């Protein structure tokens, strides 16, 4: 087995502004409340390696003695929700209202804010990287596309290096000095920000015979970047358009986030956990129509003012998936990962587009059903009014001691029935819209990537594990191998999230499931049915995550 590492995969942590150093309070929109659990999670696995070394000998080559590689599969940071501003400014009105934009200096500022609010998290990453040969891979997600900027990547390394000094200075002292990060393992004295073991792959991460990892936002119609493929490799606004290209091009989901959800979350903290984002709007119209209109009017229209005509046009095309000539040269399309073959890279963007288009079709269907549902509600109200009219007519007859004529009685009854029926239809159509969006688009992507790799004889070959994040659904499913003697491989794995979970029946309750995936190539478990794990923050140990069977 050529692999030199063991692997931990996590995704969708959504670190926001965290605890404000000036007020000591945590931002309302914060999703990541598990800095301590995360630190202990890393310590647990570092200790496992130390144990392996103690049992088998440090140079035995036994799989348990290998160093760890931590793969954070997108949405580590929540750049869309940094609305509190620090530093000298001056800030524009727009920045004050919606938070800093996506220019590299603004993104660096946002990362700075995040690191100050999540001191322990950064220390934990630093502590992890201080182990010999430990590596960190950070993939971009749709909430942290700004990791694309080299300045942001540099700043990240600098913040981690500084956090290490900070931890070394304060470890073991003071009131909050009971740091979960122990100093009992052999650690580097200093972290060098210029030669840190951190990689930022352009769009996905592939390791031969082990795994393929990708965030998955590219397959979601609300978080892909329209025809700008390869969007995750270079998410800046394309050159040659009137817009300056020193901005990150935000997908429609992020625009919702910036102009609607950030405010909506003050009322509905679970809003962003509904994927695709459209599901939240459906929920809102169903459960709180008055609020839905208010939020839409207040924020969408105001937000819309900031979108120039051109940008709004792009947004529209992006969402409806209309064919437009790609703004990047055809030659630039593909992937720049050196391990992949040319054949794979040419077919990759078209494959991404195809999966996204399927979801797009469903989103359009869902919108149609929402529209029909609202319409039948209007019709229902009209029917109620008509039946009320006849009822009043009848009551006038009663009032005047006249005989009730059966014609009016029948008409009243008919309209009551019609009104009830259209009302029930409206409710049913809403549920249909939501069901349409419950679609396994990431599994579809995993299967297609596997097929691409399988048929490409010049390529590096398929892998046993296709690991995704993004939809916040910890999941696993065996894919079609097309080759039955291949045993139990390959598998689709979704590592879930560390952000709050949304409960359909009681969305105001915050629940957490800190799910992740662990791979040890060469271990007997590597070829068994994979296990998605869950980190228990109170017990500081892992357990097998419960992943239910799907509805038939
Ligand atoms: Mn995502």
Question: How is this fold's topology laid out?
Answer:
Elements: E1 6-10, H1 35-56, E2 68-73, H2 93-98, H3 104-117, H4 119-129, E3 135-139, H5 150-170, E4 198-199, E5 204-207, E6 211-214, H6 252-267, H7 278-287, H8 289-306, H9 309-320, H10 342-399, H11 406-436, H12 441-455, E7 465-468, E8 475-478, E9 491-494, E10 514-519, E11 532-536, E12 541-544
Parallel strand pairs: 1-2, 2-3, 3-4, 6-7, 7-9
Antiparallel strand pairs: 1-10, 5-6, 8-9, 10-11, 11-12
This protein binds manganese (II) ion (MN).
Manganese (II) ion binds next to loops.
Please describe what this structure looks like.
The protein has 552 residues and is α/β, with parallel strands linked by helices. It has three domains: 8-203 and 469-544, no CATH class; 252-365, no CATH class; 369-436. The chain is 42% helix and 10% strand. It has twelve helices and twelve strands. A seven-stranded mixed beta sheet has the order 4-3-2-1-10-11-12, with helices on one face. Strand 11 (532-536) and strand 12 (541-544) form a beta hairpin. Helix 6 crosses helix 8 (289-306). The longest helix has 58 residues, at 342-399. The protein is globular, with a radius of gyration of 27 Å. Residues 240-244 and 318-328 have low confidence and may be disordered. Manganese (II) ion (MN) binds next to loops. Manganese (II) ion binds at residues 74-75, 141-143, 215, 217, 470.
